[in-house]
Amino acid sequence: MVWSSDSCNDQSFNQTRDPCVGLSTIQVSASSSQSAVAAAAALVNAVSSCCMNLCLTFLPPYLQPRKGNGYGGMPAGMGAGQEAVIFSYGDDEKRVAFLEKRDQNSSSSYSGGGDGAAAAALVERSGTVWTAVAHIITGVIGSGVLSLQWSVAQLGWAAGPAAMVMFAAVTLVSAFLLCDCYRSPHPLLGPSRNRSYLQAVNLTLGRTKAWACGVLVHTSMYGIGIAYTITAAISMRSIQQSACTTYNNNNNKKEDGACDMSWHMLVFGLAEMFMSQIPNFHDIQWLSNVAALMSLAYSFIGLGLGFARVLENGYVKGSMTGIRGATPVDKMWKVSQALGDIAFAYPYSLILIEIQDTLKSPPSENETMKKASTVAILVTTVFYLCCGGFGYAAFGEDTPGNLLTGFTHPHWLLDFANACIVLHILGGYQVYCQPVFATAEKWLVETFPDSILVRHSSVKLPVPAAGRNVEVKVLRLCFRTLYVASTTAIAMMFPYFNQVIGVLGGFMYWPVSIYFPVEMYVKQREVEAWTVKWVLLHLFSVFCLLLICFALVGSVQGLLTAHLG
């Protein structure tokens, strides 16, 4: 007696869609010498296989097993003999083994072959919830923390903390939506991995929206370079002013007012011109680690100084409604700028998928990332509330735009904190500009292959510190120098810390953190139009859009008012 997949096509198994397509032939032999038990067991196995395929009938198309190409939409890295059929969402070990094997093959293909060890190393992932939490906290906490006390001062004790909690909740919802976009087309089974935010947008929403997203992201990164130049110049000037004050007090001299921030911007820009010649993002990993450590150092120093000033004052300053404006309209603009500053303090979405790509599985990456996001945003929000709250409680109506500029002593600690800011900005500037460099230079090479900058690819420049001539690509030298010079020039034209940060926060937050994550989630989960989930997601997006438009308009108004005097 022989059972095969064709046995399912007789009258007893007649279906509109043959549930046994794709199964390898199952042979169950029963001879006259076989025992009745063995024959019955073979029959049960054959029937079970057909029943399993009946279950597969009701799976979405992209989860259907396909002979020779695994799951639908799989890259061509899996060849013959590497088919995989996964019948259980809970079968994590088999699922992960299959996906990792697929990723190694696709990575090898992507890199042009390479050796197997290099491909395996490329996809090796060992991250956990706690490593992801550490990455998120060090990536999010940065120069935005320096303006939070000013935001609380404009909003008051009632609305200030509430606004921070609201932005934290919105960011967490956005993170949950984005976590499910790491794998495509299914959040658990994939099979494709998205290793960056832009890659996820491109694969899920298409080339046109990916192009628009790329323009927004790279424009935002350019703006962050401007904001970082202003921040570094403020800290450098504070260090110089501290030294000037100490020198003048020791020598009974008056202040000469020689601390001009434009010179500090020029010095910072010159330093970044040299650092921008670092070839690519992978060569600045150590710089990124130093920058993260410095950001935590000055943030905790600012928090400690604010707490100490409150204890020194003996009471909490401030009011429920915040600093009064000259007119109600002026107050409204200040409130909108404050919201923009808070939005700038949550630059989370751009780095989420990159962090998720470091996580091991099982458990699934999206579940691990959701846990990490919850913990990290909770910790970050508590830290932000403390920094903003203690800063406002310490200064009240006199709250400065930059937290550290409000303190005058101890000089050594303030100088150290400002030095940490400068070191953080030196590295942070490169973290945000290197992706722009890579994209722009690739486009220039492909668009103008006959240009003299491309054909004469490199020159040798004498570097006394290195004791030798260093070879530098002409295109890199010219483009990156002009890029840094332009950010420095704009920073010198608009040296207004809070207003620039507000504009960037208003410009970046909604499209990057709300619109694209919502659209990707709707597309990936195939949420039908006008269902409850569809309506709630789009109401969430529209609410955030209106809020951010208010913040952006107010911040632009504040920037123009400050510039025009």
UniProtKB/TrEMBL annotation:
Residues 126-560 form the Amino acid transporter transmembrane domain. It is a multi-pass membrane protein. It is found in: Endomembrane system. InterPro entries: AA_transpt_TM. Pfam families: Aa_trans. GO terms for biological process: amino acid transport; auxin-activated signaling pathway. It comes from the Eukaryota. Belongs to the amino acid/polyamine transporter 2 family. Amino acid/auxin permease (AAAP) (TC 2.A.18.1) subfamily. This is Amino acid transporter transmembrane domain-containing protein.
